[in-house]
Specification:
It comes from Aliiglaciecola litoralis. Member of the two-component regulatory system PhoR/PhoB involved in the phosphate regulon genes expression. PhoR may function as a membrane-associated protein kinase that phosphorylates PhoB in response to environmental signals. It is an enzyme of class 2 (transferase). The protein has helices at about 25-60, 70-100, 110-125, 150-165, 195-200, 210-215, 225-235, and strands at about 5-15, 15-25, 110, 135-140, 145, 170-180, 180-190, 240-245, 245-255, 260. It has a 5-stranded mixed β-sheet with strand order 4-6-7-9-8, with helices on one face. The protein is built from 7 helices and 10 strands. Bound molecules: adenosine-5'-diphosphate. Adenosine-5'-diphosphate binds near residues 191, 214, 221, 223 and 225.
């Protein structure tokens, strides 16, 4: 039930007639609105850390009168804010690269088991303060055709989100297994969960359930939107099931054409 928007033009037609031309500009108007919202969101996301940074910078000329403990706090906060901006800019670049990408997903094999080992090491570092019990259940013979950097970004965004949005000492399970000839990925946590009313919009750019909380974790609000784009580029779709207070499961599968496993005994694919 989208309200249609039309643009009208009236032109003379012959001696005694007028011609009315109506053009449906609904989609164009929507796209323009999305573009405006996007620019407004990016500006807002950058302005907040910049305001904090410049506020702290003003205290620096006075540094000799400031207690060292306070100064340390100032530097640490400045570092956090600049990391936040860096993170945002990096994720924006990833998004625009995916959108502009003409790379074909069938051209290269990705070494997913190796990639999972690298992500597991990063997850363990990130997990130092949270102390979750994280289990990686990876089929070391299972891989796919795809775009290395994009898949890495999708897997790690989902795994790191599970770490961020699960209260300390939680349970996180990462699975990479063959299911019905398809490579299947899932990450399950027993964390915060997401209310149903947010689920529909959760993969939109900059959409967050709890803005303040997500910012504290360093989140830009772009992670799930990156995952969605990556999966659509690989003809796949993100499935989410979640219960508030119980936890969430994020999963997706790659078609059998993209899946490579010794049990499938496939020959070279030609696409
Ligand atoms: P962010 O950078 O804020 O983490 P994302 O796009 O990755 O952005 O996620 C959007 C929002 O979805 C998060 O702000 C958080 O509220 C919610 N979310 C994502 N993953 C989980 C999860 N595993 N458990 C609970 N909430 C989650």
């Amino acid at each position: 039930n989208i309200r249609k928007i039309f643009e009208y033009r009236i032109m003379p037609y012959g001696e005694n007639h007028l011609l009315l031309i109506a053009r449906d500009v609904t989609r164009l108007t929507q796209l323009e609105q999305m573009r405006k919202d996007f620019v407004a969101n990016v500006s807002h996301e950058l302005r907040t850390p910049l305001t904090v940074l410049s506020g702290y910078l003003e205290t620096l000329p006075d540094a000799e009168n400031v207690p060292p403990a306070f100064l340390n706090k100032v530097f640490s906060e400045m570092r956090t804010q600049s990391e936040r901006m860096q993170n945002l800019v990096e994720e924006l670049l990833i998004l625009s690269r995916i959108e502009a990408s003409s790379e074909r997903v069938f051209d290269k094999q990705v070494d997913v088991p190796q990639m999972m080992l690298a992500i597991e090491a990063e997850a363990n570092t990130l997990n130092k303060t949270k102390q979750h019990h994280i289990r990686f259940n990876i089929d070391s013979e299972l891989t796919v055709y795809g775009i290395d950097t994009e898949l890495r970004s999708a897997f790690s965004n989902l795994i790191f989100n599970a770490i961020h949005y699960t209260p300390a000492k939680g349970e996180i399970i990462v699975e990479w297994q063959l299911q019905d000839d398809q490579a299947h990925f899932s990450v399950t946590d027993n964390g915060d969960g997401i209310d149903e009313k947010h689920l529909k919009r959760i993969t939109e750019r900059f959409y967050r359930v709890d803005k303040a909380r997500s910012r504290k974790t360093g989140g830009s609000g772009l992670g799930l939107s990156i995952v969605k784009h990556v999966l659509s580029h690989h003809n796949s779709k993100l499935e989410i099931s979640s219960d508030v207070g119980q936890g969430s499961a994020f999963s997706f599968s790659f078609s059998s054409e993209l899946t490579i496993h010794k049990s499938l005994l496939k020959m070279e694919k030609k696409v």
